[in-house]
Amino acid sequence: MLFRNLNASNNSATSWEDLAFGAPTIIGFSELCRQQLASPLSAPAAEIDLNQELSIEAKTILAAAANRGTIDIRANKDSFNSAERFLAVCVESELEKRLLFLQKENPEQTVKFLEGFRQLCQHGLVLHHLQRDFSLSASGFEFAKSLNAADYASSLKFACEIDH
C-alpha cells in the first residue's frame, strides 16, 4: 500500500507490508517525477545534454518505451532467489509485449537499469500515474524517438519478454 499524502513528511516507520511491495523506492521515483512536474527545468538546466547525462541503461529504457511509453516497476516477492525479488523496470514496448529488465544471474545490471529509470524520473522524462505505473512524459517521448534503437540492441538483450 502506498502512502496517500506524498507531500507531507512522514517520519513514522514504513510498514512491513509497504516494504513487501517496494513502496519506499516507488515513492522515491514518484517524488522525483513530482518535483520535475512542479518545477520544470530552468533555462540553463534545460540545456543539459541528455545524451551525455543519461546512462546507457536509461537510454535503453527510452528506446524500448518509444512506441508505447508505458513503464512500471515490478517485483516478484515470492521468488526463492533473492535477485529475482529485486524491483525491476518493465516496459510495454508494443501492445501486449512487455520487457522486464531483470536477470537473476546479473543483479548488478538489474540495479543499473533501476538506476537508469531513476535518471529518467530526475530529468522529467517520466511521469508517475498510479502506484507502480509510470509513462514517458511528452519530452520523454520526444527524446526517445530521437534515439536510434539499433544503438541499444545489445543492451536490450538483457531484458526478457514476459506475458503480463
Kindly describe this structure.
The chain starts with 15 loop residues before the first helix and ends with a strand. With 164 residues, the chain is an alpha+beta fold. Strands 4-5-1-2-3-6 form a 6-stranded antiparallel sheet.
Q: Report Rg.
A: 16 Å
Low-confidence runs: none
Beta fraction of the residues? 15-25%
The number of helices is 8
Principal-axes geometry comes out as globular
Structural class: alpha+beta
Sheet with the most strands: spatial strand order: 4-5-1-2-3-6
Sum this structure up briefly.
This protein has helices at residues 16-20, 23-38, 43-46, 50-53, 56-65, 107-122, 138-146, 153-156, and strands at residues 70-74, 88-94, 97-101, 126-128, 133-136, 160-162. The protein has 164 residues and is α+β, with helices and mostly antiparallel strands. It has one domain (16-162).
Lay out the secondary structure:
Blueprint: H1 16-20, H2 23-38, H3 43-46, H4 50-53, H5 56-65, E1 70-74, E2 88-94, E3 97-101, H6 107-122, E4 126-128, E5 133-136, H7 138-146, H8 153-156, E6 160-162
Antiparallel strand pairs: 1-2, 1-5, 2-3, 3-6, 4-5
